Amino acid sequence: MLVSVGTRVRLVHLRENGVVTELLHEEGMAKVRLDDGDEIPVFLEDLSRPDPTPSNKPPVKAKFVPGKQDKVETPPERPPIESQYLIIKSKGIQLAFDPLPEPDGQVRQYNIYLLNDTRSDYLFTFELQLDGRVVQRENHKIDRTSYVPVGQLHFDQLNDTPTAVVSCWRLTTSGTGPKMEKTLRIRPKQFFKRTKTAPLLNRKVHLFLVFEPDADQQPPKEEAEDLRDYTRKNYRPKPEWQDIRTRMPHEVLEMAEFIPEIDLHIEELRSDFKKLSNAEILRIQLFHFDQYMRKAIRLGVERVFIIHGIGKGKLRDSIASRLIQMPEVRSFRNEYHHRYGYGATEVIF
Questions:
Q1: What string of DSSP letters covers 196-228?
Q2: Beta carbons of 149 and 113 less than 8 angstroms apart
Q3: What confidence score (pLDDT) does residue 174 get?
Q4: Residue 208 pairs with which residues in a beta bridge?
Q5: Does residue 58 sit in the same domain as residue 100?
Q6: Model confidence at 5: pLDDT above 80
Q7: CATH number where 319 lies
Q8: Helices 278-299 and 314-324, interaxial angle, to 10°?
Q9: Quick one: pLDDT at residue 161?
Q10: Which of 27, 45, 64 represents a domain boundary (last residue)?
Q11: 164: domain range?
């Protein structure tokens, strides 16, 4: 089934009809206005034709019908990694600018790759800024001893003060490690001096080290301190024998007790859930969701998990609709997690 703005569709799980009002290409979703007037975002795989289909045939799934757009060159598929050597000593997370010479030998463009020659997997965010404006952004996962393309840089843009901002989170069995972030301000003179053979790519590139191996586990370097600073740091007043909780700042105590997940199953929120209608259940779940998000934003946490279960997907879609409208939310995803399966959405602020 082809979908465009104005197409009448049927929501497979809710068994309701509506009209597509907006295509959300990046999220793989579409906004649908239901016949009762509600407007919600829905994943494309949950849409089908409004006409009833025979029971022995599966419903036709929805497909994007992009409007008239300028022709954009599709990036080449990621080339297979054919390392000709064994990495004896890991360098860490690196950023490589791979020159693309033209037939006349001139280089007018560089492919940008993020390299990971460590033994850990990472989530990463990459931004390329020109004159302070973000022109390219990529969020993805990079496996151990692998590389991924993250963008392109034109030769003339070296004069536009290019800046690369890279954030990484190590993936562990218990979740993600602490956030690592580095900003690389690329100057032409420095750029052309950094010509090396890149690991994994096995060719000459302009190479920058972003994070050393296990950078998120290295203790911060201590700066030398004078006698006055040492005295202030180690001075201990007479102890006041009272509950430490009464002496902690309110926000610090809240942050220490904050749980980075909320379970929105109605049985976790109300004891009388069996007497409630579906509409009342959804209203209560969204009320608790809004309260939880306001607190998380106020405390400045990095990420949270919203446990909504699988079911028919109406709660999940309603949450996605709210997250899209929150400027404090950087990204969110409903992917498989070893702890929650597909029943939770991860929100990154």
A1: EEPTTT-SEEEEEEEE-TTGGGSPPPPPP--HH
A2: yes
A3: 75
A4: 95
A5: no
A6: yes
A7: 3.30.1370.110
A8: 40
A9: 85
A10: 64
A11: 93-217
